[in-house]
Every structure is written in C-alpha cells, then in structure tokens.
Specification:
This protein folds into two domains: 39 residues, no CATH class; 274 residues, no CATH class. Helices cover 64% and strands 1% of the residues. It contains 17 helices and two strands. The protein has a two-stranded antiparallel sheet with strand order 1-2. Strand 1 and strand 2 form a beta hairpin. The longest helix has 37 residues.
C-alpha cells in the first residue's frame, strides 16, 4: 500500500476532509491550475495572432509545427536572447518590476471558483484554491499591486518614453479601478456576501446578474479593458506614440513577463466577468449541477462550462482589439472621471433604492416580481444612457468634442487660400 492510499483511507468518508487530504488536494489543484494557466497564457499569444489573421483574411503563424509550436519557439527565443540594460538604470528596481507585474496576475486566480464542489469519498473538495470569505476583496487588493511593477519599470529604465508610459498606466489604473470596484457593489447587495462562491450560488438559484445588473456589467467590462491595458485603452504602451511605453528598454524574458502578465490579467478579468455576472460555473437552464449528489461528472461539466464562458470573454478582448481604434488620452481620462465614476455612483443609488423598495413591498429575493423590478430598472437605465445621453458620441474613440460649427471654422482656417487669377491672353 502506497503512502498516498494509506492517507486517503485513514481520512474516511466524511463531509469535511481530513487535514492531510485537504492539503494533498490543495497541492494537486495548485500544480494543475498553475500549469494549465501558464500553458493557456502561452497559447493565447497564438490565439491572438490566429484571430487577428482570421479577421484580416490572412494565415497567421503556420511555420513552426503548423503554428501550434509558435509559443514554444517564442519562449526558446526569449530564453536565449541577450540581456541588455540601459545606461544609468536603477538595476534592482529594473529587475523587480517584471516580477511585480507577473506575480499578482497569477495570485488573483487563487480565490476564483472554477467548478462545483466534488463529493469525494474522503470529503467535499472545493474547486477553488483558497475559498476565502472575502474573495472578491482579495482580488481587488492583489490586482491593484500590478501597477507598481509598471510604474517602477518606467521610472527605473531612465527613458522618457518608458516614464511617460508608466505615468499613463498609473493614472489609467487609478481612474478605472474606482469605477470597477463600485460597479460590483450592486452584485454584493444582491448576494449579501463578498465570497465568490456565494455569488455564484446566488445566481445559480436565481438569475444571472447580467440581467439584473446590466449597467454594472457594462461599467465592469469597460473598466476591465482599461485595467488590462488592452485596446482601445492601451495608452501606456501606444506603439505609435511611446515606442511600446514602459517596457521599451526590456529584453529577453523580462520583456516576456510583461506580456505574460497582460494575458494573465486578461484571463483573470474574463473569469471574473463570468463569475460575477454570468453565473460562474453554473450550467444554465438547469439545477441539476447545484443539488446533491455532487458527483465527479457534475464537477467536470461545471468546469467545462466555466471554461467556455471565460474563453468567450477572452475572444471578446481580442475581437475588440482588432475592431476599435485607440482612445486619445484626454478621452480616456474624461470617460473614466466624467462618465464611468458618476454612472457607477448613480447606479449604486438606483439599484439599492430598487432593492430596498422591492423588499419593503414584500417580494422575496429570487421571486419573479423581484427580478422583474430589477430588469425594468435596467431597461430604463440602458435607454437613458445609450439612447438619450450617449447617442453614440460619449463612449466612442472617434468622437470629437467640437460641434459642427467650430469644426467648420477650424477647417476653414487650415484650408489653403486659393485666389483665382484671370487667364492670360495666350490661353
């Protein structure tokens, strides 16, 4: 009998797993999730190229293993490249910056539930690395640390373009992190808890939050694009303006760690959107996956469902990158402070008032009238925001703040002055 078998048999079929069993399965989950996460992030670089090629009607990578080994080739290339350091560099901070960007991107996955609990013979095993009761607050706290790596990368490089990229990134993340945090307050009001497991369970037995809290989802979606520095909010990198910004002076694997952190943050944001607004691992239109017995097949199918939802938002990230132009920096700041922040505050007040009013009227949480009231509130908010206020102008990188009259004056002032002359006699 192996030590592993003896440990599992000694634990016995209990509801709460023995500490040794819990530790063993935690290590297994840690190794599996970390391995899949890193391999998945590497394959996302290939997916980005293939999706962009598909949208632009070209082939994309097709040489190394018919394209599938392109991430491995890129990794080998970055490992063997020479390390270069700029002049007058602050070497300790220059080396620390990629680590500060890379580590928080991985740690945030620890509290995201990726499947239904498994009722094993040795106890119930949660499909989450660390089922913290304050899981969502943990994600907000850890993800905000990534900006330190970007700022230090820009400052320690002793390069003006890198410094401007770092400053842009810090201002951008601060601006949109507030709106992102506030957009989740209505979610917490409905769930009555900051545990991601409880938020998923609340949606499983009631309705997905994307229907109840549509405006909150829209704010979170826009803020997630800005937090991950993806188009149309990639101002910290902005190749046409800052020569790739804060990682201009980086080479070899240090350069790659910034891209790994970006794609890891993109996956984490996609998983959060799926968890907070699309039911997480819950299989739609059925309660089969939420009731006992919690068999292994249920756990496996819920993990597949969670993966599909997450990959949909990852594809959406890439779709937007090859569809929308980049915002100007003044548009970015104006959108964050003049629209997203007031909108998040107003929606908190509106949703909280509606929830309190529905509770006072005696409608039970999860009942049809309760959800109908929230859906009607969202319909009104969507019409007011997108039809009456916006009309395709505020939330658009192509929109100019000049009105038609001022624009015509500007064109007239810049137009070349053409003075017609009389034809000569020989013509």
């Amino acid at each position: 009998m192996t030590p592993l078998t003896a440990l599992l048999q000694a634990a016995g079929p209990t509801t709460e797993p023995h500490f040794g069993v819990w530790l063993l399965f935690t290590v297994i989950k840690l190794v599996v999730i970390f391995t899949l996460y890193m391999v998945g992030v590497a394959l996302l670089t290939l997916a980005e190229r293939k999706i962009s090629a598909w949208m632009q009607d070209r082939h994309g990578p097709n040489r190394v293993g018919k394209g599938w080994l392109q991430p491995a080739a890129d990794g080998v290339k970055n490992f063997v490249k020479e390390e270069t350091y700029p002049g007058a560099v602050n070497l300790p901070l220059f080396i620390l910056a990629p680590i500060l960007s890379f580590v928080p991107a991985l740690v945030t996955w620890a509290v995201i539930p990726f499947g239904a609990s498994w009722g094993s013979p040795w106890g119930v095993i949660d499909m989450v690395l660390a089922p913290m009761p304050v899981g969502f607050l943990f994600i907000l706290a850890i993800s905000s640390l990534g900006v330190y790596g970007i700022v230090l990368a820009g400052w320690s490089s002793n390069n003006k373009y890198a410094l401007l990229g770092g400053l842009r990134s810090s201002a951008q993340m601060i601006s949109y992190e507030i709106a992102m945090g506030m957009s989740t307050i209505p979610v917490l009001l409905l769930a009555g808890n900051v545990s991601l497991v409880q938020i998923v369970n609340q949606q499983a037995y009631e309705t997905w939050n994307v229907l109840n809290l549509t405006i909150a989802f829209f704010i979170f979606l826009v803020a997630a694009f800005a937090e991950t520095n993806r188009l149309p909010f990639d101002l910290p990198e902005a190749e046409s303006e800052l020569i790739t910004g804060y990682h201009t002076e980086y080479s070899s694997m240090k350069f790659s760690m910034f891209f790994i952190a970006e794609y890891a943050n993109m996956v984490t944001a996609s998983a959060l959107m799926a968890t907070l607004f699309f039911g997480g691992w819950d299989i739609p239109f059925t309660l089969w996956d939420n009731v006992a017995p919690h068999t292994g097949i249920k756990t496996l199918l819920t993990m597949v469902c969670f993966l599909v939802k997450t990959l949909f938002f990852v594809f959406f990230y890439m779709w937007i990158r090859w569809t929308l132009p980049r915002f100007r920096y003044d548009q970015l700041m104006s959108l964050g402070w003049k629209l997203m922040l007031p909108l998040a505050l107003g929606y908190i007040v509106a949703s909280a008032t509606t929830i309190v009013a529905l509770d006072a009227l005696g409608f039970a949480r999860g009942s049809f009238p309760f959800h109908l009231g929230l859906v009607l509130l969202n319909i009104v908010c969507v019409v007011v925001l997108f039809v009456i206020i916006d009309r395709g102008r505020l939330i658009s990188p192509a929109y100019s703040r000049l009105n038609a009259r001022d624009l015509e004056k500007l064109r007239a002032a810049r137009a070349p002055q053409f003075i017609p002359t009389a034809p000569e006699s020989g013509d």
